[in-house]
Amino acid sequence: MKLINPASVQGKILAAVEASTEISAKELAELFQQSKQDYQRMTRALQDMVGHGHIARIGRGLYTRPKTTARLRNRKSQERMARYAHIRTIRNEPFARSDMAFVCECSDFWAKRYINALRKAGFLQKVGLRGGKVPLYLATQMAVEMQIEEWPVIRKPKAFTRKETLLLGLQDCAARIFAASRAETISLGDIAALAQELTELAVRMNGKNNDE
Amino acid sequence: MKKRFFRSSNVNRLVGAMEILQKREPRTPGLGLIFGPAGRGKSEAVDWYYSGHDCYYLRGLDLYNPRWLLQDLILMMEPRAEVRWSTADRFHQARQLLMKYRHPVFIDEADYLLRKGCLDVLRDLHDLTDVPIILIGMDTICSALLARPQFWSRLLQTAIIEWQPLSASELCLVFREWTGLSLVPGAAEILCQVREGDFRDLMSDFVELEMACAVNKIQEVSGQMVQSLMAKAARKKEIAAGRLNMLPRQVRILGREANV
Fold first, then answer.
1. What is the pTM of this model?
2. Do A103 and B47 touch (CB under 8 A)?
3. B79 CB within 8 Å of a chain A CB
4. Cβ(B3)–Cβ(A102) under 8 Å?
5. pLDDT tens, B205-237?
6. Among A146, B31, B135, B216, whose CB has the most other CB atoms within 10 angstroms?
7. Which residues of B touch A104 (CB under 8 A)?
């Protein structure tokens, strides 16, 4: 589960929700009672916290603290990797990225992403190199003292980011067709090649969607 | 060579035993045992199982006594728990936590628990909570446990897993999966006989065979290639042993001279 800084907006909301059994968005707004921007910030923080399982929505504008800790929903591979890092640390056996990918049966790409995220959050540390090249990692003391469910997770890249990438590709293709038409050298073959490129891009984006 | 986790018959037996242990009737034997020589992939398999299932893992220590064992069991289940002072309180705390979570507990290096009554603590915890406890140890642990009939009778027979070496057919599959090359069954049998399922030795053999295939541009490893590889390894071993014998025996006790 994502960690929350007590001084942040999310931290304040969490403290308010923990203080009472249930709390409404209005009460929270009164608590902050600042500008419209602050209110928007609060609503965004609420959505984010519901998504991460810190608080649960029990009705229209009503929130409470869930009794059980949130599981890593739809993130099986991340949970596997976290557990793997945990067991290797208990045994004091540093592991490389490839070891993690091998045992957790996930791709090297995911292992790399997750290790980087854990290192940024202070859950993993580099402890040496294997053969002078391959970095080895172990979990930090802070991570070992936490339940595995509380370890941070990587969020999926947002949908609009993917759309944006696709749109940029499309614009690029359009610009090239336009430039070609201005120079009056465009042929059907060129258009077909560009269309092929665009299709490949779309397929690649869809593939990414399926993988992640 | 691209390593991928291989579900050997040993791993399948582990998964099957864990399912039986977790779905068994209450008040039936629920202890498990995994044993076998080092290098056969026990730890990798346990890592793999641990990473995919809700369970606990504890590594046994040489200095363990019941009190320390209970403390580590409690901290394993709840890392931020306040461990109580008296041994009785610790026992009840551990029991409550086991009852709360009900996840199986793997205890590695269980050979260390044979002394100082630690094994009896585990037996009591198992009796009172019905939570499966699986001991992992070297091949000597089996005979040591046989000498304790009260403990042995609580072991579920299907959950006693001897970690056996890979069979020739499994070795062919692993080789094909990791290197993309094929291994003649005769060659696999030679590898099985010589290496006795030691994964560390097998890995180095695989790398050498893959290189030999790449140099000769062949897709199949023959028995002759494996035989020559084994002969080379044996020769290296002999040379190393000869060199070790040739080393001068000098024993210096530092500090002794100064005292004298």
1. 0.65
2. yes
3. yes
4. yes
5. 888 888 888 888 888 888 888 888 888 888 877
6. B135
7. 51
